[in-house]
Amino acid sequence: MNEFLVRRLWLPLHERLRGRETLRHYSDLKASEVWDAPRLEALRLRKLCRLLAHCQTQVPYYRALFAQAGIKDAAASGAQALREFPPLERDTIRSGGDALLAESGHPPRLRANTGGSSGSPLVFQTDLVKEARHNAHKLRARSWFGVLPGQRQVDFWGSPIELSKQSRLRVFKDRYFLNQVLLSAFNLTAQRLDGYVTFLAKYRPRLVYGYPTVIYRVAQHVLERSAGLGRYRPRLVACTSEMLLEHQRETIRQVFDCPVANEYGSRDGGLIAHECPAGQLHIAAEHVWLEVDQPDADGVGDLLVTNLDGYGMPFVRYRLGDRGRLADAPCRCGLPLPVLAELQGRANDMLVGADGRQIHSLAPIYVLREIAQLQQFRLHQRADRSVSVELVLSRPLLAGARQDMVRRLQAVFGELPIELIERDTIPPEKSGKYRWVISDAV
Question: If you ran DSSP here, which 8-state letter would residue 98 be given?
Fold first, then answer.
């Protein structure tokens, strides 16, 4: 579809029919880029105070916390009241999630879940306003590189389960009316990679988006097979959901000959930060309030996020599971947005199928997270390619469910030995961090 028509007609119509004001929020964000830092900080503080007042009056969990802390007026206390809150943990959401739901004063809620990259999938509720502003921040960040709403993009994304749920009508609508094409990030055979390279050269998306391990593998394939992209070059490759390693960035930049930017966010926390052309991770400050919990001597600690737009099920001081450090100085690019100076996340490994094909490590997650009683897991693929999965469950799996889970995992890996082991707990690594996938296969 003509990109101008998508930006001016089909995308606004699509968002209106979905009940989202994404493009209005996008316009507001573009306008605020010329503000100075004090004006932006004043807006953030107003949004924080408004959210805390909502939590105090409408959300039972936070109402109790305010009472325990002796805070009578959360809106007046602002950031000081925020610091009185203990961090919100995933186990708290699981055990008492209903108390986190707003009683009134919220947009219609939507069921959502995390991808499970921490080894501990989470089911929660989001809302249309939170989702629209999340998407608007993505659009704003991409515009820094000259990628505008409605321009062609290809996403390396989606589990086999999610892709199978896409109707032909939705695929047609996304591609021909919204200029968005979704390519499976899993089962990266040489034949499939050949097809991806050919499609990119023909479709010529301005944005390539997705898991860095997958985009890196596509770039490697171009180098290995001399399967060139012709004269095609995107305006931006944006990587998300995993740590973007420097060797991956360099290979992707070499092959695609364009800027490579890191995006940091989560389904539960929202879009948190995005890299600018100057190479700095700018915090989506109008959308999230980011803190560092118990920083060490270098200023690095657990990242806590408060989503300023999530009124249906507010997450205040939510522990993301990653560590980082905030910058003291502004970025030389001139944007008023604060900077996340350092991000220490989790690096994902690639797994190996029975026939030797590479399998993205998120592929089995989309199978495992279908277990309703799953609380935590750790998957280990040994050098002989056999797989063991440790499971922490709220109640045991019945024999039929175990057999079905093994069968579904074998649909991902092929006919490999798969062992399910139920545990009471899964201990962390010596570093104190949890690894949700360990791959010794080559």
Answer: G
Domain total of the chain:
2
Per-residue pLDDT of 273-308, as tens digits, reads: 999 999 999 999 999 999 999 999 999 999 999 999
Mean pLDDT of the chain: 89
335 & 364 share domain: no
Strand order in the sheet with 418-423: 418-423, 387-393, 374-381, 437-439
Last residue of a domain, one of 322, 344, 366: 344
| In a domain? residue 107 | no
Asked whether residue 363 falls in the same domain as residue 415, the answer is yes
SS3 196: helix
- Neighbouring C-beta atoms of residue 29, cutoff 10 Å: 20
β-bridge partners, 323: 302, 344
Q: Tell whether 110 is covered by a domain.
A: no
Say yes or no: 313 and 419 in one domain: no
Contact residues for 286 (Cβ-Cβ < 8 A; gap 6+)? 29, 32, 40, 43, 44, 47, 133, 137, 308
Residues 6+ apart with CB under 8 A from 124: 93, 97, 112, 113, 114, 268, 313, 315
Cβ 250 vs Cβ 287: under 8 Å: no
> What CATH number did the domain enclosing 313 receive?
3.40.50.12780
* Residue 243 structural domain: 129-344
Structure tokens at 292: 């560092």
Across 63-80, average pLDDT: 88
Tell me the HSE value of 82 on the side-chain side, using a 13 A CA sphere: 25
**Helix then strand then coil, % of the chain, to nearest 5:** 40, 25, 40
C-beta separation of 275 from 281 below 8 A:
yes
Could you give the count of Cα atoms lying within 13 Å of 259 in the half-sphere of its Cβ? Answer: 22
254 and 136, same domain (yes or no): yes
Give CA–CA dist 56/245, Å, rounded.
Answer: 42
**N-to-C CA span, the chain:** 42
Which three-class secondary structure state does DSSP give residue 395? coil
Question: Are 382 and 405 members of one domain?
Answer: yes
Nearest to 129 by CA among 65, 50, 242: 50
pLDDT at residue 178 is higher than 50? yes
Residue 334 CA to residue 34 CA, distance in Å, equals: 9
At 244-258, the pLDDT tens digits run: 888 889 999 999 999
Q: Are residues 169 and 298 in the same domain?
A: yes
Rounded CA Rg of the chain: 22
Q: How far is CA 305 from the centre of its chain?
A: 13
Which tokens go with 125? 């509720």
User: Which residue type does 435 have?
Assistant: R
Claim to verify: residue 380 and residue 286 sit in the same structural domain: no
